[in-house]
Amino acid sequence: MQHPTLAFLGHDMFESLRRWTGQPLPTAELPLAVTTMAMDQADVRVGLVSAWHGPEGVLIGNDEVAGFVAAHPDRFAGVAAVDLLRPVAAVRELRRAITELGFVALRVVPWLWGLPPDDRRYYPLYAACVELGVPFCTQVGHTGPLRSSEPGRPIPYLDRVALDFPELTIVAGHIGYPWTEEMISLARKYPNVHIDTSAYTVRRYPPELVRYLRADGREKVLWGSNYPMITPMQALSDVDGLELDAPGLDLFLTGNARRVFGLK
What residues are paired with 172 via a beta bridge? Predict the structure, then answer.
């Protein structure tokens, strides 16, 4: 999830998403209470709040996210973003975010950079994630914003990363559609590869993901919202239709995230 800052919401790349959702742009910065209220409406206890950094610069800074976490340390955990085009500085910033700011993961969105996750510029960050003991979060599948979807193909790009870094924990967000079967095959193949459902309501989960979630994927799939594009309430609507047993539902909504991100 992201706290919806003006710089984030107003970026040109999200014009298509604004058109789909019909959400008007706010005229002033939204208080953090807007986000915690959206979480409360869906009984969401903890949100993983992501920073955003792209080739054009910072959209939501790590220190800004740290401020959100400091305001509600029992409700938020921070996810770092770095400048992928400056690998040495990126590793330093990742270390600072984890060791000084207390963040729990790194997130890089491939379509934002136009670089698939097997590009050499990611590799120092993967090594640092392994050393620091934090997951690498990314996006797979097509892009809603008007950018190329090619960097989101799970095979061959994420497949190569999992081969080269078997100790790296990977959380692939947005399911992977229309390459869902590719993403599921990677989650089955590699113990440290996981899928999260952010950006999808339950009714839009591909049938193959639901089958995987009910069977051998119960410890490999994590629920997510991608707030503010989808509210937690929208993302949880119809969750009973997944027909998961009680342990499976707990893993999907809470247990897997606690384990993967080391949440208390």
Answer: 138, 195
pLDDT band at 8 (very low <50, low <70, confident <90, very high): confident
* Least confident segment among 98-102, 141-145, 153-157, 210-214: 141-145
Q: Residue 137 in contact with residue 171, Cβ under 8 Å?
A: yes
**CB of 84 within 8 A of CB of 50?**
no
How crowded is the C-beta side of 179, counted as CA atoms within 13 Å?
Answer: 24
> Which residue range(s) make up the domain with 174?
6-192+255-261
Q: Is residue 53 part of a domain?
A: yes
We report the CATH number of the domain holding residue 21 as 3.20.20.140
Alpha helices, DSSP H, located in the chain: 6-9, 15-21, 32-41, 62-71, 87-99, 110-113, 123-132, 159-164, 180-189, 207-214, 232-236, 246-250, 256-261
Q: Give how many domains the chain has, as a whole number.
A: 1
Residues 6+ apart with CB under 8 A from 170: 135, 136, 137, 138, 158, 161, 162, 190, 192, 193, 194
In whole angstroms, what is the distance from residue 245 CA to residue 63 CA?
A: 40
Residue 170 lies in a domain: yes
* 3-state class (DSSP) for residue 88: helix
Residue 203 covered by a domain: no
The least confident of 5-14, 73-82, 218-227 is 5-14
Asked whether residue 188 is assigned to any structural domain, the reply reads yes
CA–CA distance, 194 with 204 (Å, rounded to integer)? 19
Full-model pTM? 0.95
Residue tagged 């107003």 (tokens): 10
The string of pLDDT tens digits covering residues 129-184 is 999 999 999 999 999 888 899 999 999 999 999 999 999 999 999 999 999 999 99
